[in-house]
């Protein structure tokens, strides 16, 4: 699995790969189902899926003779979010606000249990 933002952004550079990620947002799909959504050949879609897998943006699992793909949305969100926070100060502020809110919610939940 790739560990760099460069690999992730390279994977996101192609519109077909971005569309595959969008198609996977609602749940896993078989490779054949994914390929059926495009006018390109099956091997071409397979190569795109390989790029996404290498970047850690999708996972695959075998079910008999089918390969099912799933989106790794948290990796995508964290990678893009980390990049945005370095170039967009507003993202840094939003991240800090989210941390404070989640910390406050966790404290309130802990207090409610007592």
Automatic annotation (TrEMBL):
<dbReference type="InterPro" id="IPR001845">
    <property type="entry name" value="HTH_ArsR_DNA-bd_dom"/>
</dbReference>
<keyword id="KW-0804">Transcription</keyword>
<feature type="domain" description="HTH arsR-type">
    <location>
        <begin position="1"/>
        <end position="91"/>
    </location>
</feature>
<protein>
    <submittedName>
        <fullName>ArsR family transcriptional regulator</fullName>
    </submittedName>
</protein>
<dbReference type="InterPro" id="IPR036390">
    <property type="entry name" value="WH_DNA-bd_sf"/>
</dbReference>
<dbReference type="InterPro" id="IPR036388">
    <property type="entry name" value="WH-like_DNA-bd_sf"/>
</dbReference>
<dbReference type="InterPro" id="IPR051081">
    <property type="entry name" value="HTH_MetalResp_TranReg"/>
</dbReference>
<keyword id="KW-0238">DNA-binding</keyword>
<keyword id="KW-0805">Transcription regulation</keyword>
<dbReference type="GO" id="GO:0003677">
    <property type="term" value="F:DNA binding"/>
</dbReference>
<dbReference type="GO" id="GO:0003700">
    <property type="term" value="F:DNA-binding transcription factor activity"/>
</dbReference>
<dbReference type="InterPro" id="IPR011991">
    <property type="entry name" value="ArsR-like_HTH"/>
</dbReference>
<dbReference type="Pfam" id="PF12840">
    <property type="entry name" value="HTH_20"/>
</dbReference>
């Amino acid at each position: 699995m790739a560990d760099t933002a460069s690999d992730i952004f390279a994977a996101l550079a192609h519109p077909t790969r971005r569309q595959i990620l969008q198609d996977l947002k609602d749940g896993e799909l078989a490779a054949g189902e994914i390929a059926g959504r495009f006018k390109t050949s099956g091997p071409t879609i397979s190569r795109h899926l390989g790029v996404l897998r290498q970047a850690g943006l999708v996972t695959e699992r075998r079910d008999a003779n089918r390969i099912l793909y799933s989106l790794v949305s948290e990796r995508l969100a964290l990678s893009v979010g980390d990049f945005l926070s370095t170039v967009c100060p507003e993202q840094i502020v939003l991240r800090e606000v989210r941390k404070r809110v989640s910390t406050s919610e966790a404290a309130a939940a802990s207090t409610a249990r007592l």
